[in-house]
Amino acid sequence: MGHRKTLMLDGAIARELSSKMLTDVRLIPEGASVQVSSVVMDSRRVEDGALFACISGEHFDGHAFAKDALNSGAVALLVDRKLDVAVPQLVVEDVRSVLGEIAAIISGRPSTEIDVIGITGTNGKTTVAQLLAAVVSESGRASAVIGTLEGDMTTPEAPRLQRKLRELADDGVSVVAMEVSSHSLVQQRVRGTSFAAGIFTNLGHDHLDIHGTQEEYFRAKSLLFTSYGVKQMVVNTDDVYGRLLGDLAADDQEVSRFSMAQVELLNLSLEGSIFVVDGAAFSLALPGRANVENALAVISWARAFGIDDETIARGLASVEQVPGRMQRISGEGYDVIVDFAHTPEALEALLRTCRELAAGRRLIVVFGCGGGRDRRKRPEMAAIAGVHADVVVVTSDNPRHEDPSEIIAEVCAGFSETTTARWSSEVDRSEAISRAVLAAEDGDLIIIAGKGHERYQEIGSCKTDFDDVEHVRAAMEAKR
Question: Domains in the chain and their CATH numbers?
Fold first, then answer.
């Protein structure tokens, strides 16, 4: 690890953090000094020389595991209150507020050596990240993606994030496309990361179980642009929150705006799209208007970054598929689309897109809602499916600790006298997919929504293997 280094935890670092973070950071005992080689927030993963960060979370308090961490080799603690242990302790008001900064210091501040492009918004982050990385690679620079398809969290916790950035910098990567979730911004996981640019895709109805209101959800997303020194903002002006974000730009921030109004000669099909922006022609193998919008975000960023249109076009065209994002599987006379759409806005956009791409064909949609998440969206999604599809099968998503039958009942409450689709429910997601495939006739288009790329299903505290794509293919084989 070429630039990785240790941290001398002493009074000087406490004063530096106090000044940089504008918060009180004290080292106890005063005058203590210890060499720290890593920062860890899971006591089970402590290694010799580690600084153990005691995070106070929803379910566990890291302070309760401090002695376990010390027994495993930790040499110091990051705490929000002094503990009765004989090792140096860095005492702060909020552990998370300084965790990212310390992790970045220990890793040698890798984000200062590469261009990190933060991508946030409700929908489109994953596809934008993949398209952006492809365009960068086509320009001759090494690129990488940190996001939903690369790990179990959209945005990793600070210690893991900084270690990953360090690895990428040491491997010669010069541009990183990073998905930045609202949760990670509120939890300050990206603190200590320098962003060359930030891209805002849109803001829909999601994560209100965490943020409470749409306004707080937007405030969380906007933190990327207002609190992390983003030099260049790329915003979607077709979204009211994108326009608002552009208006909030500081004097020293460059703002690039994109809109579907820029698109000319748009030709859409299930095989992809062809379109023109400012006289330059582009093609995508990814179908639907939403993917054209995702491409616009990348075009806007890449032009500002100095990449020419021909290179951008080759990069965009090189992405043949993004797992679980409008992923097409062809059957005998019918097609299946597997997509991650799990919000009302995303489901409506997906169904409108499929209706547009498959005019005159029957739409069969299978979807569910996750347990332990925003319950308000459940009936909304049924109402949307009920007017945009021809056949609807409501099923389980990731029920987690809720009864899947009760979740389905709350979803189905959204069907009403305005519902035009024929609908039914099936708790078993595999059976629901099979039912849809068996019901398909020549020309039909089946949409399996909600889980996309995920290869598991969360039931209770367990994650069991479950891949929508595999179950679709198995159902197709059984139908033959």
Answer: 7-106 (3.40.1390.10), 110-317 (3.40.1190.10), 327-479 (3.90.190.20)
